[in-house]
Design a protein that fits this description.
The chain is α/β, with parallel strands linked by helices and 234 residues long. The protein has helices spanning 52-56, 71-74, 99-107, 117-126, 175-178, 190-207, and strands at residues 23-27, 30-34, 63-65, 78-81, 85-88, 94-98, 130-133, 138-140, 143-147, 156-160, 164-166, 210-213, 216-224, 229-233. A seven-stranded mixed β-sheet has the order 8-9-10-11-12-13-14. α3 (99-107) packs across α4. It is globular, with a radius of gyration of 17 Å. It starts with 22 loop residues before the first strand and ends with a strand.
């Protein structure tokens, strides 16, 4: 990504290497995929690669959870050709989203630039694979999507058990923990997203929560020093 999208000019250089992560959870006899990468929509943004099959090691997940419907999160559940010949990547796997995200996608113009959500939701509905959940509803043992508003309508974080949090697109770079106001270039409602970001980071620091994020390599914790919070990678 251009460095000035993530921080003030000159802090990160002309470009910054930003991963797009998926999270694979194995437990309770099932495999759960959290977000699915860009998939067939990888060409929408420079530098995207498609490695979902490798991440799953040849397995088909029992459940897919989507934190939101941006192309780099939803594209991996789409097979076929965009925009008019779409089918599910996983033919029998339910795909879970917050109901707010699904409602917003249905109401949007499918031809709006960067809109990957509308056609994705409609395709999943036709296939009988869409599952809409409410904020805080337990999806499977220990897994709860929680609304994290501001980035997108229906954007969610995932709480995993009592001690782990998937921050999704709450932050886009480790520096955003220390400087939450540097994020926001890609947020739908920047002021609301900033409040959400600060609340979640403060809570994670207070509770010692293990965190992962859609666009930071590896896991970490949010640690507090005298003056600021920091991302402490594991």
């Amino acid at each position: 990504m251009p460095g000035h999208d993530l921080a003030p000019a000159g802090v990160l250089g002309e470009y910054a290497d930003v991963p797009t992560n998926v999270l694979v959870l194995n437990g309770h006899g099932s495999t759960v995929l959290v977000d699915a990468g860009a998939g067939i929509l990888a060409s929408w943004y420079p530098g995207q690669s498609v490695e979902l099959t490798a991440a799953l090691n040849g397995r088909e997940p029992d459940l897919v959870l989507l934190t939101h419907l941006d192309f780099d999160h939803v594209g991996g559940v789409l097979a076929g050709t965009w925009p008019n010949d779409l089918r599910p990547t996983f033919s029998s796997t339910r795909v879970v989203v917050l109901d707010e995200a699904a409602h917003a996608a249905r109401d949007a113009d499918p031809d709006r630039p960067w809109n990957s959500g509308t056609r994705s939701i409609l395709m999943l509905e036709r296939a009988g694979l869409l599952r809409e959940v409410t904020d805080g509803e337990e999806i499977a043992a220990g897994l709860t999507l929680r609304s994290a508003p501001g980035h997108r309508s229906g954007h969610a974080v995932l709480r995993i058990g009592d001690g782990m949090l998937h921050l999704a697109d709450t932050i886009h770079h480790a520096l955003h923990v220390e400087h939450p106001d540097w994020d926001g270039r890609h947020d739908g409602d920047r002021a609301l997203a900033l409040r959400t970001r600060i609340d979640l980071l403060e809570g994670a620091a207070e509770n010692g929560t293990l965190c992962v994020s859609s666009h930071i390599r590896g896991a970490g914790r949010i640690e507090r020093t005298r003056h600021a919070l920091h991302w402490a990678p594991l």
